[in-house]
Amino acid sequence: MSKITAAITAVGGYVPKFVLTNKMLEDMVETNDEWILSRTGIKERRILKPEEGEGSSYLAIKAAQNLLEKRNINAEEIDLVIVATATPDSMVASTAAFVASEIGAINAFAYDLLAACSSFLFGMSTAASYIQSGKYKKVLLIGADKMSSIIDYTDRTTCIIFGDGAGAVLFEPNTEGLGLQDEYLRADGSGRKYLGMDAGGSLMPASEETVKNRKHYIYQDGKTVFKFAVSNMADVAERIMKRNNLDHTDVSWLVPHQANKRIIDATANRMGLDNTKVLMNIERYGNTTSATLPLLLSDFEKQLKKGDNLVFAAFGGGFTWGSIYLKWAYN
Ligand code: UT7
């Protein structure tokens, strides 16, 4: 019997309707379009407004429904729903459980997975392992974040970067050797002081004081995070290539976390890839945290061909980072 590998067999995506442009941000904080574009590569991002819907679950449900409708898949066949997110609907109750019920995945178990901007990448490893084990046949992995719920729109160092969105992929068994080939995943807890949100967790529960001191918003020491992200994302991508004897001609696509165009360019450069092989949509969505990787797959699905070699790379809070090598499974 041939070995079972875990392949992505369907993708979906969703971004909310409201567009927050650099020009609009100029009226909110001391910034300008030229600075944002040249330092980050971002032109606009999407924001989920209450008139449209609420919570990361809204985005996750839309992305999952897009996937199911596009490929005509019956939700009742799904065994497991994982929602990768840094902004769950609420503490304690699983966002994934709600999403699974809403999309009709009534036979699935469901849970959330949190590793900041690496949530989806780590989720790929988790989802693929369930498939490779032979235990489950259909695992739906969704990356969804409503970053606007934890952004301080008076802080120009963070509000220009993040946006809201969601993407979904389905993992299924493959006997042609396609799907996930190798992974190199890392974490370093000393990084948590440089990127995170102080209050609202068990370490600093919500209080009048935390609200007054604006502790429920994300903070980032941009320069430090930038340095770690540039070297670590490039390191892991290069390592995955070496370990699998891939040179730049073998790599069909780099699928990088969309945090900053300069970080993506540095990673591609180290891999010896020209920009025609780099998937990018940061200019339209900004950094959507757990949604960046699946939104790339959803936006560029038509260009991906069966057998293509994809190298994923991400870096995020914690710190968490890593790279995955995956062979695309369909046209
Ligand atoms: O996804 C999770 C991982 N996150 C990341 O990978 C993000 C990593 N960091 C970055 O992408 C970049 O560090 C930023 C985009 C956040 C900032 O870019 P930078 O080139 O590192 O800028 P900087 O923080 O060094 O600031 C340069 C200058 C400063 O002014 P002075 O001190 O030189 O006078 C800032 O005060 O730019 C100023 N500045 C701004 N100016 C206009 C900071 N934010 C803004 C702004 N508009 N929004």
Strand order of the largest sheet: 1-7-6-4-5
Low-confidence stretches: none
How much helicity do the residues have? 25-40%
In total, the number of domains comes to 2
What does this protein structure show overall?
The chain is globular, with a radius of gyration of 19 Å. It has helices at residues 22-26, 33-40, 55-71, 95-103, 119-132, 156-159, 208-212, 222-243, 261-271, 282-285, 292-300; strands spanning 5-14, 18-21, 44-47, 80-84, 109-113, 139-146, 164-174, 179-187, 195-196, 219-220, 253-256, 309-316, 320-327. The longest helix is centred in the C-terminal third of the chain and has 22 residues, at 222-243. With 331 residues, the protein is α/β, with parallel strands linked by helices. The protein has a five-stranded mixed sheet with strand order 1-7-6-4-5, sandwiched between helices. A four-stranded mixed sheet has the order 8-13-12-11, with helices on both faces. It has eleven helices and 13 strands. Helix content is 33%, strand content 24%. Helix 3 (55-71) packs parallel to helix 4 (95-103) and helix 8 runs parallel beside helix 9 (261-271). It starts with a strand and ends with a strand. It binds oxa(dethia)-CoA.
